[in-house]
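User: Hey, quick favor. My workstation is busy. Could you predict this chain's structure for me?
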Amino acid sequence: MKQVKLEFNGSWVLEHRGDSKLPVDLFIDVFSAIIGGNISVSKSTLTECELLLNDSILTFEEIGTIVADILKNEFSIDKESDIAKYAINDFENNDSPKKTEDADDDNILDKLFNHNKSEQEVKAVEDFKNDSLKERINALVGVDEFKAFLNELLLIAPYVKKHNTAQAFAFQNYIFSINKGCGLTTYLNLFADVISDSGLFKFSGENPVIEEKLLPPGNESFDSVLSILNGYGKNTGKLICIDISEWMTNLSDKRMRDFLSILEDKSSSNIFVFRVPFVESDILDEISSYLADVLFVRNVSFPPMSADELADCGRNALKQYGFTAEEDTWELFKRRIVEEKSDGRFYGINTVKKVVHEMIYRKQLFDARNNVDSNIIRSEELAGLVKADGEGLDGVSALEKMVGMEDIRKSVDEIIAQIELAKMNKSLGHPCLHMRFVGNPGTGKTTVARLIGKILKEKGLLRNGNFFEYSGRDFCGRYVGETAPKTASMCRDAYGSVLFIDEAYSLYRGDNDSRDYGREALDTLISEMENHRDDFVVIMAGYPDEMEQLMKGNAGLESRMPYEIVFPNYSNEQLYQIFMKMAESSFSCDESLSDAAKTYFDSLSEEFLSSKSFSNARFVRNLFERTCAKAGVRAQLNDSDSFVLTKDDFNLAVSDRAFEKLFEKKKKSRIGFIS
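Assistant: No problem, here it is.
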C-alpha cells in the first residue's frame, strides 16, 4: 500500500476561498480520476490530505510525476514551489509510514508538516477554519439554541488555547433533547468538527462520533456502552452519544449511578452526549440535575421543525445535487409533507430527504420522456408526488356526491353558515371552529372532515385547509414530559387546517389512572383549541357512547366543541350504491355484477348492520378490493389486457375464506347474514 501526503500553504489556500472547490478537494478529485482503482482518503482538512493507494502497481516515481503534473496543470504550482509540499510513502497496516528510498535526505516530512509558519499565516488558517465552520453553522435550519451553543464554542476557543485550559473543557458533557429523525447524527458530527477544528478537543481515529442506546432497565442495559469504553481503553478521544430515554424515570437507580461513575472516570478523555426526546424544560432540568450529581452537564434543546423550516431543509438537500425548484414546487413539497405527517408516522429529516430524492427522480424521468435537460424543478414535472385532490370538484360538490349524506350535508351547511356569520359580526368575537363527529366506523367521518377543511379553505375561513389525521393515543408520549410538547407540535402543524382525531375517547381513561399521559395530552389540546380557536379546526370522532363519556369526563371540552354531527349506519341500499359507485368509477362492469351485488347487500340482516363492530363503507371497500383482485388474477391467467368486473369475480370474493372471517366473530354473537 502506498500513501500520498500533500499540504498547501495556508495563506495561499485562503486566497482561493472563493473558488468553486477548495484546492484540497480539487486535488483529491483529479488524482482519484487519474489513478482509478481502490483509493481511500484517510485525512482531509482545509490545507492537507492523505490518500491511500490500496492496490496500485505504480512506482513511487510514477505517482510523484502524476502529483507534480496535477499541481502544475490545475494550480500552476511548480515542483520546487513552497506553496505545496508532498511526500509518497510505503504504508503497511496502521503502522507509521515508512520513508521511501528516494526521499530527500533533508527530511521532507519535517518540511511538510513541521515547517515554521509565521504568526500571520497561522492566524489566517485559523480564521479560514472558523469562517468555514460559521458558514456550516449558519446554514442550519431552525435549532437556534444549538447554533448559539456552537458559536459560543468558537468564541471561547482562542481563550481556551491561550490559557491552556482545554482539559477543563474536556470534562464538560451534554444532554441533547431531540426527537428521532430530527438530524441527531448530523448535529453530532458538526459538534465534533467544531470542537476539533477550533482546538478544544483532540479526537482519535477517522470516525470520532459513536452512537449507542441504553436498553430498558435490566442487568444488560449498559453492556453495549461499556464494551465500547473498554474497547477504546487505549484509544480514547471519542464523542460518545448515549440514548438514555429508557432510563429517564430511573435515573436514581443504583445501577445508573454506578454507570455514571464509570463515565466520570473517562470524561476527561471522551466527550459524552446524552440523548433524550424533546421534552418540557422543567423535565429536562430535572434529568440534568440527576446527571449533574456525578457529571458536569449542559442542556441543548432541538424543537421540532415547522413546515417552512422543513421546506428549507428540502432546499438545502436539493442544492447538494445541483438542483433548484420554483416556488410553487415547494408548495407541492409542503403538501407531500402534510401527507407524510397525516398518518402519524413522520421521520423528520429522513422523510424530507426521501421526498427530495423522489422529486429528483420524477423530474429526471420527465426530462427523459420529453427529451429535455434542466436542473430547475417545476411543479408540472412532478406528477404523482402528492395524491390527487378528489375528482377536481369543489368541497361542496364532492360532499353532495357522497352516498347517504343528505342530512350530514345540511348539518355542515348550517355549521359553516354560523361560522361565516360570526366572522362577519365582530361583536360576536372569534368564532370557534371545533367539532365532534359521532358514529360507528366506516360511516364517512374521515371523508367529511377532509371535505370540511376543503370547504372552509375555499370560503376563506381557513388559511391552508390541509388535513392531519391521528388516533387519540398518537398524542401521548412514552416518557414523562414528552406528551405536552408532542401534542403542541402536532397542533402547530395543523394551524390553518383540520386536525382530525379518531378514537378520541382513548385519550380519557378516568381520573384515577395517574400513569396515563392521555390527561396531559387533553389538557394541552384544550389549551391549543382555546388559544387558536379561529385558526384551526379540531374534529374529535368516535363511537356515540364513548364520545359522550369523553365530554362528561373533561370539563370545558364540550363547550369548546360546539358543533356535533351524528353519522348513522348505512342502509342495505346505500351499501349497494357505494359498492357500485366504487366499481363503475374505476373499471368496466359486466351487467350481471349489479344484480349479484344487489342480492348480496339486500341479504345482510339488520342485526348485522346495526352491530357496533360492523364497519359500514370499510366493509364495502374490502369487498370491492377483493373483487378487483379476483378479476385481476382471471385477466392474467387468460393473458387478457381487458379488465372487466363480473358476477363470478364478485361471488368468488364473497366466498373467499379471508373475507368470510369477517363474519366469524359476529356469528359467535348470533349475528350473520342471510345466504
